[in-house]
Every structure is written in structure tokens, then in C-alpha cells.
């Protein structure tokens, strides 16, 4: 019989809507990823500040756009949210998402938990398509999106400049609920 020794990672991950008090830890996660180069090219002046994020979060929530955090033992270890893909009314059923996991907690299934919940709540909110833009070198994010059935629908060569070179972006898309098979 296999005996499973509990690791300290067995603490449950809770996914819930974000709150105002989550803004600082969310910013810390985002800033760290900028420093590590995922969004390099964003200067300090452009880095979102706590108030911006707080306002953005309120706007999103008041308009029913999912904005979620994952917590472990009360600590925010990741977040995910959507915004409208495009502002024109015809695009109102299509969202664009972002997902970030704390650097100390990547590769432990938290991205999966957040992604599953994000897809479910977006579908329940009536959205029909979800779109993401991923750096072509970001194997972890590409793997996560493959796993959740996102199709690679676009290749945007040389649209980013980081670490002294041009970088490509991959556009991914997934249907939500009945997608485009039924009227909204
Ligand atoms: C990309 C990211 C959100 C993934 O979240 P995560 O919690 O590390 O991923 P999980 O542990 O839940 O893994 C889910 C799946 O993603 C894929 N994946 C995760 N890490 C991977 C890696 N290093 N290489 C390849 N695939 C990977 C696997 O398919 C994995 O499923 P599996 O464990 O059954 O193989 C996270 O690594 C992150 O925040 N990275 C920095 C910010 C970022 O790149 N955000 C996305 C911008 S588009």
C-alpha cells in the first residue's frame, strides 16, 4: 500500500472573488513578474499603482467581470481576471483574460484551479469566448492554456521588444458554454 506523506503544500487552495485588501498582494505578484521580465519594458511609471488596481477591480466587479484570487492559508498566491476583448457593443460576449501566480507557488496546480474557476464563472456570466495573448517563449502559460482546450488561433511575430530582442506573441481562444453555436 502506498503511504502518502503529507507535504506542507497540502494546505487547501481557496479561489474566491477579489477584495480591496487583495490589491497590495496582487500588485506584489505582478511587480515581481515584471522584474523577472515577463512584461519587461513596462517602466516603473507605467507599473500599475495600488489605487489604479483598486479602481480597476471595482469597475470590473461592478460590471460583473470576474476578478478572482487564489489563497493558501489566507495568503494571496495568484489572481486572474477578465476585461472586455473590445469595447464596441458587438464584442460584448467576448473577454480577454490575465492570470498570474506568485513566483514561490508556480507549478503546483494553482494556475489550474484559477483557470477552471475563471472559465466557469465567465460562462455563467454569459460570456461566449475567452481570449489570451501569450509570449511565445512562455512554455508554462502555453501548457496551461493547451490543457484547458484553448486553440492557438494567432501568431503575432515581433510585437514585443524585451531582453534586447523582438519577441513573438501567440493568441489563444476558447469557447465558453455553447460558444457561437446558439444565440446569446
Ligand atoms: C503560467 C502560470 C499562470 C501557470 O500557473 P501554475 O500554477 O504555475 O500552473 P499549474 O501548476 O496549475 O500547471 C497547470 C498546467 O500548466 C502546464 N505547465 C505548468 N508549468 C509548466 C511548465 N513550466 N512548462 C510546461 N507546462 C507547464 C502544464 O500543462 C500543467 O499541467 P500538469 O501539471 O498536469 O502538467 C504561472 O506559471 C505564472 O503565473 N507564470 C508567470 C506569469 C504568466 O506568465 N502569466 C500568464 C501570462 S499569459
Q: Mind telling me the C-alpha Rg?
A: 17 Å
Bound molecules: coenzyme A
CATH class of the domain at 8-131 reads: Alpha Beta
The portion of residues forming beta strands comes to 25-35%
The total count of strands amounts to 7
Largest sheet: 7 strands, mixed
Number of helices: 4
Q: Within the CATH hierarchy, at the fold level, what is the topology of the domain at 8-131?
A: Aminopeptidase
Classify the helix fraction into a percent range. Answer: 25-40%
Tertiary shape: globular
Tell me the structural class. Answer: alpha+beta
Descriptive tags:
184 residues; alpha+beta; seven-stranded mixed sheet
Summarize the structure.
The chain has helices at residues 23-35, 50-62, 110-124, 139-147, and strands at residues 13-17, 67-72, 75-84, 94-101, 129-135, 151-162, 165-175.
Give an overview of the whole structure.
This protein is an alpha+beta fold and 184 residues long. The chain has a domain at 8-131: Gcn5-related N-acetyltransferase (GNAT) (Aminopeptidase). It is built from 4 helices and 7 strands; from the N terminus they run βααβββαβαββ. It has helices spanning 23-35, 50-62, 110-124, 139-147; strands at residues 13-17, 67-72, 75-84, 94-101, 129-135, 151-162, 165-175. It has a 7-stranded mixed β-sheet with strand order 1-2-3-4-5-7-6, sandwiched between helices. The protein is globular and about 45 Å long. It starts with 12 loop residues before the first strand and ends in a 9-residue tail after the last strand. The mean pLDDT is 89. Bound molecules: coenzyme A. Coenzyme A binds at residues 33, 38, 99-101, 106-112, 132, 134, 138-141, 143-144, 147.
Amino acid at each position: 500500500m502506498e503511504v502518502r506523506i503529507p507535504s506542507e503544500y497540502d494546505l487547501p487552495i481557496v479561489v474566491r472573488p477579489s477584495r480591496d485588501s487583495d490589491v497590495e498582494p496582487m500588485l506584489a505578484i505582478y511587480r515581481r513578474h515584471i522584474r523577472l521580465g515577463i512584461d519587461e519594458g513596462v517602466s516603473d511609471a507605467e507599473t500599475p499603482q495600488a489605487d489604479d488596481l483598486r479602481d480597476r477591480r471595482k469597475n470590473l466587479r461592478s460590471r460583473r467581470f470576474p476578478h478572482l484570487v487564489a489563497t493558501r492559508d489566507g495568503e494571496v498566491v495568484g489572481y486572474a481576471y477578465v476585461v472586455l476583448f473590445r469595447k464596441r457593443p458587438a464584442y460584448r460576449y467576448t473577454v480577454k483574460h490575465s492570470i498570474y501566480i506568485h513566483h514561490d507557488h508556480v507549478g503546483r496546480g494553482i494556475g489550474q484551479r484559477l483557470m477552471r474557476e475563471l472559465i466557469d464563472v465567465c460562462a455563467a456570466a454569459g460570456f461566449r469566448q475567452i481570449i489570451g495573448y501569450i509570449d511565445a517563449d512562455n512554455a508554462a502559460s502555453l501548457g496551461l492554456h493547451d490543457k484547458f482546450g484553448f486553440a492557438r488561433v494567432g501568431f503575432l511575430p515581433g510585437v514585443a521588444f524585451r531582453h534586447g530582442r523582438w519577441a513573438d506573441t501567440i493568441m489563444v481562444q476558447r469557447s465558453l458554454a455553447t460558444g457561437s453555436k446558439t444565440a446569446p
